[in-house]
Design brief:
The protein has about 270 residues and is mainly alpha-helical. The chain contains ten helices and no strands. The radius of gyration is 19 Å and the shape is globular. The protein has helices at about 5-25, 30-55, 60-75, 80-100, 105-130, 135-160, 175-195, 205-235, 250, 255-265. It has one domain (about 5-265). The mean pLDDT is about 90.
Length: about 270
């Protein structure tokens, strides 16, 4: 297969995925909710497959039920809090552990609750941020663009100038220079939001800096965190759903730690 043919699936994903993401981000509401409900659904599926490759299993019903409850709550069909969802997930897990004949019940329920918290909190946080009437759109744009700038800068500067590896056993290509470059570029980008008040409300300098560190620093740990699981599972990508881009976890791992932390900072 020629390089041109190899690049076609990636090009198609870009041509279809980018407008879909931008449109959902701009219009928000049901479009954004359903899009990220789908992203979370496939992320749960990918994580379940990774668990199987690590010779573990999770009770898939638990995170899927949690996502369903969070989705209908976002759509105002039936209001339920994130605390209620997590509590219900634990209760369901305890019941299913007794009913089902599981080889390693403790590991199964632990992984099930973990995926519920990890992916469920991501969905809840990113939707909550976008649905904010005052700063939802600009803050969502700031988060996505900052993380993208961080990833791009880390790759470019790391490839050109990076020698010292930051996590050679987890992600051999990540370098200290690349990581610091990504952080600095994200901070510079967020400083423009503060300077021109693009977020639509009076965001303090301290909170702007904190958000810059979240988008440019903490987001990299989200990437490394998922890479750790892939390393244990001995796979390169979480799936091949997004041809040329890997899987949904590969694309959104940075946001899975950035979004919940951002929501925490804004509500602190």
């Amino acid at each position: 297969m020629t390089n041109t043919h190899k690049k076609r699936p990636r090009l198609y994903i870009n041509l279809f995925g980018a407008p879909l993401m931008l449109g959902a981000m701009y219009y928000g509401d049901i479009f954004f909710i359903l899009l990220f409900s789908g992203v979370s659904f496939f992320s749960i599926y990918e994580f379940s497959n990774m668990c199987k490759k690590m010779e573990y299993s999770q009770i898939e019903l638990i995170p899927y039920c949690a996502l369903f409850l969070l989705t209908i709550s976002s759509l105002d069909i039936y209001l339920v809090s994130i605390h209620q969802v997590l509590l219900l997930s634990i209760i369901i897990g305890m019941i299913l552990t007794v009913i089902m004949d599981l080889k390693e019940p403790i590991a199964a329920i632990s992984l099930s609750i973990f995926s519920t918290v990890w992916i469920g909190l991501f969905y809840y946080s990113i939707v909550s941020i976008r649905l904010d009437e005052v700063s939802g759109l600009p803050l969502t744009i700031a988060m996505f663009v900052s993380v993208w700038i961080c990833d791009s800068a880390a790759y470019i500067f790391g490839k050109q100038f990076g020698n010292k590896k930051i996590a050679p056993t987890i992600s051999p290509k990540k370098t200290l220079i690349g990581s610091l470059s990504g952080l600095v570029c994200a901070l510079l980008f967020m400083s423009s939001f503060y300077q021109f008040n693009w977020l639509g409300y009076d965001l303090s300098l301290l909170n702007t800096i904190l958000l810059g560190f979240i988008f440019g620093g903490l987001s990299q740990f989200g990437d490394l965190f998922e890479s750790k699981f892939k390393r244990i599972a001995k796979i390169k990508d979480s799936s091949h759903f997004l041809q040329g881009h890997g899987g949904f976890l590969d694309r959104f791992d940075s946001l899975m730690i950035s979004a919940p932390t951002t929501l925490f900072i804004l509500n602190f």
